[in-house]
């Protein structure tokens, strides 16, 4: 599948989704066309969600690397390993004390 970067398509996908919603709300479409538009809208929603997840991952990486002077280009493969490392380090936190437990 040769799609552009999800972030670059986000605004266009939102605009297309709004047009689909408007057409469905007007009720002028045939059942067949309404189903096709609904299917297209669901696909656009998934693409928008992917774009938001990608943006969130970029923000997490930038936040973790905020002390570094240079930023590295975004790499989808490194995101999973970075998140996994963060999750492991959070689980093995030795600074935990009984005072941290809410009553």
Overall 3D shape: elongated
* Overall CATH architecture of the domain at 6-65 and 76-85: Orthogonal Bundle
CATH topology of the domain at 6-65 and 76-85: Helix Hairpins
**Terminal residue distance:** 52 Å
How large a portion of the residues is in β-strands, by DSSP E?
Answer: under 5%
| Largest sheet composition | none
Stretches where pLDDT is under 50 for at least 5 consecutive residues are none
Mean pLDDT: 78
Count of beta strands = 0
Number of helices: 3
The computed structural class is: mainly alpha
- What percent of the residues sit in helical stretches (DSSP H or I)? 55-70%
Integer-rounded radius of gyration: 21 Å
Order of helices and strands: HHH
CATH class category label of the domain at 6-65 and 76-85: Mainly Alpha
Structure description:
By secondary structure, this protein is an all-alpha fold. The protein has a domain of 70 residues: Helix Hairpins. Helix content is 69%, strand content 0%. It has three helices and no strands. Helix 1 runs antiparallel to helix 2. The radius of gyration is 21 Å and the shape is elongated. The protein starts with 5 loop residues before the first helix and ends in a 12-residue tail after the last helix.
